[in-house]
Amino acid sequence: MFYTELNVGILYLLAISSLGVYGIIIAGWSSNSKYAFLGALRSTAQMISYELTISFSILSVLVCSKSLNLISIVLAQKTIWYFIPLFPIFLIFCISCLAETNRHPFDLPEAEAELVSGYNVEYSAMGFALFFLGEYANMLLMSSLITILFLGGWFIPFPLSFFLFFIPDSFWFSIKISFFVVFFVVSRAILPRYRYDQLMRLGWKILLPFTIAWFLYTSSILLSFNWL
Asked: How far apart are CA 54 and CA 93, in angstroms?
C-alpha cells in the first residue's frame, strides 16, 4: 500500500510544504510590479498564519496516535476515525487548508478587484501554468493529509466493510481524496470572499487560540486516563 516509511513523516511534509512561501515571495518581488509584490506579501502572511493553526491541529492527532509516522497514524484509526472525537479540530483543519492553498473564500492574494491577479499577474505561458500546477498539487496534498489524519487513510468505512471487503484499499483512499478536491472546487462557487483584516483576525484571534486550547484539553484528557 505504501512505498516508503518515514518515522517523522508528518514533520517532513510540514517542512517541505512550508518552502512554498519562498517561491511566492520571490515571484512577486522579481515581477517588479506593485500588484504582484502586494499579492506576494498577502500570500506569505496568510500562509505563515494558517500554518500555525494547521500545526497545532496536527498536534492533537499526534498525541492521540503517539506517533509521527503517517502509517502509524492511519493504523491507530482502525477502530475509530479521528474526525469523530476530534470533530472541531477536523473542521478547523479543513478551513485552514482552504486558507493555506489560497482557495475561496481566502483567495485574497489573487483578488482580481484590487490586485488584478496577485503575485502571478506578470506571468504567462509556462510560468503561469507552473503556478497553477503548484496550487492544485497543494490541494491534492492537503486532501491527502485530511484523509490520513482524520478519515482513516485507506481503511474502508465500517458499515461497508462487510459488503465491499473485496475492493482494494487504494480505491477508498482515492475516493476520500477526490471528495475533498471536489470540496475545494465547490467552495469557490458557494462562498463569498473575506476581507483581508477578517482573514487575519480569524486566523490569529479565533482559530489559533481554539486549536491551542483543544490541544491542551486533549492532552489533559489522555494524561488523566494514563493514555499518554
From this structure: 6
